[in-house]
Design a protein that fits this description.
There is one protein chain. 28% of the residues lie in helices and 25% in strands. The protein contains 13 helices and 33 strands. Strands 1, 2, 3, 4, 5, 6, 7, 8, 9, 10 and 11 form an eleven-stranded mixed sheet that branches. Strands 22-23-24-21-20-25-26-27-28 form a nine-stranded mixed sheet, sandwiched between helices. Strands 14, 15, 17, 18 and 19 form a five-stranded antiparallel sheet that branches. A hairpin with an 8-residue loop joins strand 5 and strand 6.
Length: 674
């Protein structure tokens, strides 16, 4: 109701004032727009508007129809109607006159009619050199008419709100269905991946039912043993119903799998656990899957898997402290884990620039303590739906305007990691998993086991993720040694770096797990940074609107709707800057348009790209040398092709975001891009 009243009040105010619109438009020495009698249009009436196409290439010389896109009162409600135009009969036709006309029912609220012209395909446009066309309207509505309009406008907005609520419920239901399907597929893939060693009948264990287990020793280090024993349990070994080790039945001739039967899977179980051994007791060798054991999910149980408490300790997090992909992944993986019912907390340094962040205005005091020769103050705030803690040493160690860039980064981040662990210990937290990331928080793995595991915080296991092997290899190696599991961000990159001294001594606990993007943050269907939200069914219209907005933002021409090739990247040697330059020239030479969003930390590289922008300046290129989150969303939506010509790329998120927004990623075959 308030929105409707405000909108109508504004239109009533315009109706009683001079809006400065005329009844004709003179331009280029000829009349471009006119009304039937040279008088203002009348609100609520049916009339005609004439537009002169002479010497205007829109639609071509043989055009048979054009479209007038109409709004009112300085586009207060956007484009309200589209009308097909036709050539006007009875009007002069010469080099200065090619009159087209359309019939328009003028809105009863109108004080000015606004319009732009497009061809029939809505590919070429005339917006009067970005000023749009304006025609004066005499508003004749009385108080009774305005009262009716006010009520109609309220009903429209109410219906739109209800429709939006319904659509959001449908979207969430669709997303939940997709997530459930993806989870089921993940379970099936997990079972298939270990089926060459272990599988069961039924394929997914059923609560209250017997379970036959098949085990192939030939694909394990127990391949030498004649006897195989199976030790089983439930709910990650926490269930009281765990049985004694069973001697498995050897395979028949020509078969490979040993078998054993679990008489009944408990009704209150949610997972079955196994290890296998060559015998029982002292001297027996075990296959415990590299310390992870074999676990199979149970279906139909009446107990739920208890949530885990996961704490991420990192120096980046999107969108509040973003330098690269690490920040996006910390946020995305945390949200994904939380969406699966687990408790997630993130600990970050309290950088000075956080004080200016509009996203952190709700920071609250959590605690303080003396440690490391200073007082540590900890604040908390919800960011992207996640509980975050900010560690601020009072020695000004993090009184910086950037995440990286000081000569003592290593010393500062090591101090932060220990202070974060001290905070967890002082507040009696016992997370199940400590997850640290890259060299900058690698210190967590060593410090936890050496200083905290036996001094109060006994429960956690440490997971360590290498996002980029090229930095801080000594710290990476140290964390790999002390962590219970080490991952990197794609299977292909894991293969590429498996020979590195950082990981090659611990390959039994080193895994490649491809990064993902947060489907709620990167979703064109709900993205408020786009001029028109879209999905797979409406992507043609949505991307067309994004292209138009992108061109407007970067001062480019929309003439002929050329394909747009884009780059969204930090400009470093790793990202293939020489290939980006080549692509810019090649795109323009082939008749496309080129856009770039990014900046270089190296002044020399930044200078080169400043020169490139100057040399290619014009209607077909646009360069924006800064971090701009809203513009990055518009880039993905507005571009037809996104280039990722990295020299090496552990995973890369750009190609995933591109596909999410309907742009084709063109990448160099390396690392996670393969």
């Amino acid at each position: 109701r308030a929105e409707a009243n405000a909108e109508v009040d504004r239109e009533m105010s315009m109706a009683s004032s001079d809006v400065g619109a005329g009844v004709t438009l003179e331009k280029y020495g000829r009349t471009i727009v006119k009304t039937p009698n040279g008088e203002p249009l009348s609100s609520g009436s049916k009339t005609q508007v004439f537009w002169n196409k002479a010497q205007n290439p829109i639609g071509g010389a043989d055009a048979t129809s054009l479209i007038m896109h109409v709004g009112y009162n300085e586009w207060i409600r956007g484009v309200e109607e589209k009308f097909t135009m036709r050539r006007a009969s009875g009007e002069a036709q010469d080099e200065n006159n090619d009159w087209w006309v359309c019939d328009i029912p003028v809105s009863p609220t109108a004080s000015v009619l606004n319009f732009v012209i497009s061809d029939a395909d809505e590919q070429s446009w005339d917006n009067n050199d970005k000023e749009n066309f304006r025609v004066a309207v005499k508003n004749v509505a009385d108080e009774d008419v305005w009262a009716v309009i006010r009520e109609l406008r309220f009903e429209e907005k109410r219906a739109a709100a209800l429709r939006a609520i319904k659509e959001e419920k449908e979207r969430l239901a669709r997303r939940a269905k997709e997530a459930a399907k993806a989870k089921q597929i993940a379970i099936e893939v997990g079972l298939k991946q270990q089926a060459f060693i272990i599988y069961t009948e039924p394929k997914v264990p059923q609560a209250g039912q017997p379970l036959k287990v098949f085990y192939n020793k030939n694909n394990t280090h127990l391949n030498w043993s004649q006897d195989i024993h199976m030790t089983g349990g439930f709910n990650r070994w926490t269930h009281a119903g765990a049985g004694e080790p069973l001697k498995m039945t050897p395979p028949k001739e020509g078969e490979e799998f040993y078998t054993a039967v679990v008489p009944s899977v408990p009704n209150d179980s949610w997972m079955v656990d196994f290890v296998f051994s060559s015998g029982i007791g002292e001297g027996a060798q075990y296959d415990n899957r590299g310390g992870r054991d074999y676990h199979l999910p149970v279906s139909g149980g009446n107990a739920k898997k208890p949530p885990l408490h996961v704490v991420h300790i990192a120096v980046e997090m999107a969108p509040i402290a973003k330098v690269g992909g690490l920040a996006d992944v910390v946020t995305a993986i945390s949200r994904a884990i939380q969406d699966n019912g687990h408790q997630v907390e993130i600990i970050l340094p309290k950088y000075q620039f956080f004080n200016n962040s509009v996203l952190l205005g709700g920071r609250e005091y959590e605690t303080h303590f003396d440690w490391g020769g200073t007082t540590i103050r900890v604040e908390k705030c919800i960011v992207e739906g996640l509980q975050c803690f900010f560690v601020e040493p009072q020695n000004n160690m993090f009184s910086t305007d950037s995440v990286y860039g000081r000569n003592d980064d290593g010393e500062r981040f090591n101090f932060f990691c220990n202070a974060a662990l001290e905070f967890l210990n002082r507040t009696a937290r016992q997370p199940d998993i400590l997850h640290c990331h890259d060299w900058s928080s690698a210190e967590v793995a060593r410090a936890y086991w050496q200083h905290y595991h036996h001094n109060g915080m006994h429960k956690p296991k440490v997971a360590f993720t290498i996002h980029n092997m090229n930095y801080g290899q000594a710290k990476l190696s140290e964390a790999v040694h002390h962590s219970q599991m080490t991952t990197t961000v794609s299977r292909s990159y894991a293969g590429e770096v498996s020979g590195s001294s950082v990981v090659n001594g611990n390959l039994q606990k080193f895994y490649g797990v491809r990064n993902g993007i947060d489907p709620d943050i990167w979703d064109p269907e709900i993205d408020n940074f786009l001029p028109m939200k879209y999905n797979a069914e409406t992507c043609v219209q949505g991307k067309a609107a994004a292209r138009a907005e992108l061109r407007s933002r970067l001062g480019m021409s929309g003439w002929d709707d050329k394909p747009i090739v884009g780059v969204v990247s930090r400009l470093t040697a790793q990202k293939g800057v020489h290939l980006i330059k080549h692509a810019a020239h090649h795109t323009l030479a082939r008749g496309g348009q080129f856009v770039l969003l990014g900046s270089a930390p190296d002044p020399k590289i930044q200078g080169e790209f400043n020169g490139l922008a100057n040399s290619l300046s014009g209607d077909d290129s646009g360069f924006f040398f800064a971090f701009d989150e809203p513009l990055s969303h518009l880039m993905y939506a507005g571009c037809d092709i996104i280039l990722v010509p990295s020299m090496f790329e552990p995973c890369g998120l750009t190609q995933m975001i591109s596909m999410r927004y309907g742009a084709v990623p063109v990448v160099r075959a390396t690392g996670g891009l393969r």
